[in-house]
Amino acid sequence: MLQEFKDFIAKGNVMDMAVGIIIGAAFTAIVKSLVDDLINPIVGLFMGGTDFTNKYIILAGEVAAGTSLADAREAGANVFAYGSFIMAIINFLIIAFVVFMLVKRVNAIKEAAAKEEEAAEEEPAGPTDTELLQGILDAVKK
After folding, report:
1. Which among 19, 82, 119, 139 would be 20 to 30 A from 132, CA to CA?
2. Mean pLDDT score, 13-26
3. How many domains does the chain have?
4. Same structural domain, 1 and 41
5. Residue 76: which residues within 8 A CB-CB, separation 6 or more?
6. pTM over 0.85
7. Do residue 21 and residue 31 come from a single domain?
8. In this model, does residue 124 exceed pLDDT 70?
9. 23 and 59: one domain?
């Protein structure tokens, strides 16, 4: 059983998946920083500086007006945090667009490499039937 486990772990698919997960986690941190630190402030400018994160409705409990969502939750209030949901949707759309652009670019690079490889593999076309028959006729005449 131990040998089977070693064989399973050593297979390329498992190793590829592990590398993919690690790279994905690192890429997630980059994209999150891109969205949080660069894109969301620009979106906030277009929306009049509105940050939806602290938009909520108090369902139960007492919270002073103007209290942040984190403070309201810490105070034990039951809140309907629609602003966080809106920001999650905006972040998702931005991240999905960034990933789409990245995948589109990678696919274009792969297609270009495949075309180059295909062109390199193509062998020069051999002589046509007419050229072969002409060669045979010339050889017979000699």
Report:
1. 119
2. 81
3. 2
4. yes
5. 61
6. no
7. yes
8. no
9. no
Residue 12 has pLDDT above 80, yes or no: no
Could you give the CA distance from residue 30 to residue 24 in angstroms, rounded to a whole number?
10
pLDDT at 106 over 70: yes
Contact 56, 79 (CB under 8 A): yes
Q: Are 69 and 106 part of one and the same domain?
A: yes
82 and 107 together in one domain: yes
CA distances from 67 to 28, 40, 55, 63, 89 (A): 31, 22, 10, 7, 23
Dihedral (Cα; 46, 51, 52, 58), 10-degree rounding? -150
Report how far Cα 123 is from the mean position of its chain's Cα atoms.
37
Q: Are residues 67 and 1 in the same domain?
A: no
